[in-house]
Amino acid sequence: MTDINPTTTLTAKDFASNQEPKWCPGCGDHAVLQQIKSVLPELGVSSENIAFVSGIGCSSRLPYYMATYGIHGIHGRALPMATGLKAARPDLSVWVATGDGDALSIGGNHFIHTLRRNPDLNVILFNNEIYGLTKGQYSPTSKLGLRTVTSPAGVIDHPFNPASLAIGSGGTFFARAFDKDGKFLRSILLRAAQHRGTSLVEIYQNCPIFNNAAWDAFANADIKAENTIYLEQNKPLLFGKDQKKGIRLDGFKPVVVDLEKGGVSAADLWIHDETDINKASILARFADTDPDSEGALPRPIGVLYAEDRVTYEDALTEQVRDAQKNGAGTLADLLKGDNSYVIK
Amino acid sequence: MTDSKTTTKTVNVTSKASVSVLFAGDSGDGMQLTGTQFANTVAVRGSELNTFPNFPSEIRAPAGTISGVSGFQLQFGSKPVYTPGALFDVMIAMNSAALKANLQNLHQGGIIIAGTDGFDEKNLKLAGYPAGVNPLEDGSLSNYTVFPVPVQQLTREALKDSGLSSREVDRCKNMFILGLLYWLYNLPYEGTVEMLKSKFSKKPLIADANIKAVTAGYYFGDETEIFANIGRFDIPPEKEHGTYRRVTGNEAAAIALAAAAKKSGLELFLGSYPITPATEILQNLAKMKKWGAKTFQAEDEIAGICSSIGAAFGGALAATNTSGPGLALKTEALGLAVIMEIPLVVINVQRGGPSTGLPTKPEQSDLFMAMYGRHGEAPLPVVAASSPVDCFYTTYEAARLAVEHMTPVICLTDGYLALSSEPWAVESPDNLAEIKPRIHAPRKPEDPPYLPYKRDENLVRSWAIPGTKGLEHRIGGLEKQNETGNVSHDPDNHELMTKLRAEKIARIADTIPLQTLDNGAEKGDLLVLGWGSSYGAIKTAVDQAIEKGYSVAHAHLRYINPFPKNLKEILGNYKQVLIPENNNGQLVHIIRDTFLIEPVGFSKVKGLPFNEMEILAKITDLIKEL
């Protein structure tokens, strides 16, 4: 976040560049782009103080469509580029667009280290469980058994759980949203932008060409309510068509309970606390269950975890400030050093 | 504290012009500290000096063995010295392994001061001597002047009332030998006493014991009769009046980055990952926050350079430092910096390769990688430093080229320059070249659209820094349309941009200084063309060759891409060109390709720098053939 206020009221249009998006028709990326553009005017930051940084992949083309500063970098390296930019320029609002291959495969190392350092970045992870730009190979989030051009007999690599990975890496903010639920996505993007630290937003994004309907269990109107749970701070975990199902914690084990059956009331349910890392760790694991399986847990949507912790660039700036508390060093002092000697 | 010079008994003091000394012992014997202290003392007294540490890559290799030997070589003299000396005049061997590992580099007739406690049965066996053989006793050292000194025993005697454990006492024996060397070379020990007081200010017992050991060593020289027949030596200091500091190449490179940031008005950002022998640049800059330096220890080499690319986009003077394996990992990102046309300084401290190779040993074998090691057509400027002090000037120049020409620049140094040191006359800020960033002014709404890839007369684009109104733009690794920077797959545009990027680098030749001769006449029989750390050895060898009456000259390249504009002319002024390199002849290839001449290569790939004797011998051979 920056303190600079625009002089005029901006709209989503002011953040659109003159380049036409080249994503496929029906791609979830269009919807995400739209929500990002619509949320930026609310931040009170003018376009010259915003930078979008990306790696390689379909979603990484996003910076070209923004009327802000932007870098379209190399595969997997958006996070270190963004970290360097933020460390050098803490005044900028820095956003990262990345995908499941970019962030979790080739950029996996940067992903975990960025999260633990906690620079103030807004990281949008477009998860479509597939490599799109290279035409349909499985990704590190593809489900077991998925048949693709590189896994004709089905995927045998156990997939990453991005939420568990993020929390396990020491990330300070993890939220989940959908490309298809624009209004909710917008609210999550706003929350992410307001969080000081690395905000990771995993967006379930549909690739209509290579992995169509991967998220249908959570997106289709008729079954969505049974398979998702919208998290609200300090509210019980309720879900289902009429909000008649809930989650109760049985020790460390989350259990689905039916409020219409006797013996359980809303007061017995798990109360969401996004600042509780233990609860967040359990919530993150909900994504390990397949929605079709017996005893499946609903997929948590919203802010799973948010922790207030000093950002990398603030800590660095503080060290520089401390070193300069008696004044910044001069060039002459630098050249002379502290071990010089005089020959008379 | 009494003055160490005046209390000494009068013995014969011989003046010498220069002397090369090796301190060698086990890696736990503290030889690096001993050598550094000796170097500080002679530097502060006003001697010319060149130092070179030589140690194994293991932190603690097996004690007493050849692989565990750690050495610190230095040459000091009245007149400038450019190398640590081809052969040593004096060798301190704290154990038998140190003797065995280094004897071949001792002058015939040279002095050996042997710590006899390190020549016991156990040490001799560890050093690989056959049972019953002790080189100090079997006459095999009869060509040298050997002084057996029971260093450990004498140190223990001196410190018997110190209240320290025997282990702690034994750790002081390096200070005993240092004191003895101070006596032998007529040098004051007070500077070391001050250092010990400050280093061990919280451990007064340790400080006192070390101080006692230094003085005991000094007065041992005075009291013992063993040096009577050689006496003491004096190397009169003749350094000009002035303020000096002693720097290693890695220190100098770090200072240069911070200085370039100050001079250009930019903030310094270094994204880096620890790698031998480049790490000290990161370590030194991490201590320079007072000058605004921001350092980022990244998770890997790629993140190191990518964070710097991000910082450069944000308007910082961005740099990354590494060694061969790290440069290999950075090559994709270097291509991104080339196509983005942003300033970036990459310092590559070369070491023996390929792969992990010889991590602590120097080599000049990354020249091809610096020149050509990227996919696609991705030219960038390459400069090379020639001495520890020159690491400052060349790194500073790399920063100037990067900022003023909007390009990544590779600055080559090596493990020899990185760790060796020499005195540096403290530079005045006014003497440093101006560095003028091409920062674009804010754009008003009525101004024409901003064109990120519009170029000036040197084909340099402007630097539009985030936060500047009206210059919002998106750039990246995809080919871009000329001027607008928008993504373009147009065939003609790609060819145009490829040629523009190459021409931009080529035109740097118009702005850099012409090549000069370091030594010798403008025309003659032989030109020795060098680059990098061979400077001192070539300089010394060519000096000696000219003294012998040979028609030899020396030119040393700082700019390798592009070459200075007059290089072709210089090469044409000699019947033959000799290029010594610590590689298989990489500059030879480049010179041959560029100028269609056939230079003579002289390769040395032993993980060791050239010495002047080798180069003089090669010059002599070539001159005789001409």
Automatic annotation (TrEMBL), chain A:
Q: Does Oxidoreductase appear among the keywords?
A: yes
Q: Where on the tree of life does the source sit, at the highest rank?
A: Bacteria
One GO biological process term is: cellular respiration
What the entry lists under InterPro entries is as follows: 2-oxoacid:Fd_oxidoreductase, THDP-binding, TPP_enzyme_TPP-bd
Full protein name: Thiamine pyrophosphate enzyme, C-terminal TPP-binding
- Keyword Zinc-finger on entry: no
Q: What is the lineage of its organism?
A: Bacteria, Pseudomonadati, Chlorobiota, Chlorobiia, Chlorobiales
Query: Which key words tag this protein in UniProt?
Result: Oxidoreductase
Molecular function (Gene Ontology), one example = thiamine pyrophosphate binding
Which is an annotated Pfam family here? TPP_enzyme_C
- Thiamine pyrophosphate enzyme TPP-binding domain ranges (all copies): 56-203
From TrEMBL, chain B:
- One matching Pfam family: POR_N
InterPro entries found in the cross-reference section: 2-oxoacid/accept_OxRdtase_asu (IPR022367), PFOR_II (IPR033412), Pyruvate:ferred/Flavod_OxRd (IPR050722), Pyrv/ketoisovalerate_OxRed_cat (IPR019752), Pyrv_Fd/Flavodoxin_OxRdtase_N (IPR002880), Pyrv_flavodox_OxRed_cen (IPR002869), THDP-binding (IPR029061), Transketo_C/PFOR_II (IPR009014)
Pyruvate:ferredoxin oxidoreductase core domain location is 525-593
* Sorted UniProt keywords: Oxidoreductase, Pyruvate
Source domain of life is: Bacteria
Q: Name one GO molecular function term.
A: oxidoreductase activity, acting on the aldehyde or oxo group of donors
Q: Enumerate the spans annotated as Pyruvate/ketoisovalerate oxidoreductase catalytic domain.
A: 28-218
Every copy of the Pyruvate flavodoxin/ferredoxin oxidoreductase pyrimidine binding domain together lies at: 269-485
Per the record, the coiled-coil ranges are: none
SUPFAM superfamilies in the record: Pyruvate-ferredoxin oxidoreductase, PFOR, domain III, Thiamin diphosphate-binding fold (THDP-binding), TK C-terminal domain-like
Q: Quote the Gene3D superfamilies the UniProt record gives.
A: 3.40.50.920, 3.40.50.970, Pyruvate-ferredoxin oxidoreductase, PFOR, domain III
Please cite one Gene Ontology biological process associated with this protein: response to oxidative stress
Fetch the PANTHER family from UniProt: 2-OXOGLUTARATE OXIDOREDUCTASE SUBUNIT KORA, PYRUVATE-FLAVODOXIN OXIDOREDUCTASE-RELATED
Protein name per UniProt: Pyruvate flavodoxin/ferredoxin oxidoreductase-like
Q: From what organism does this protein derive?
A: Chlorobium ferrooxidans DSM 13031
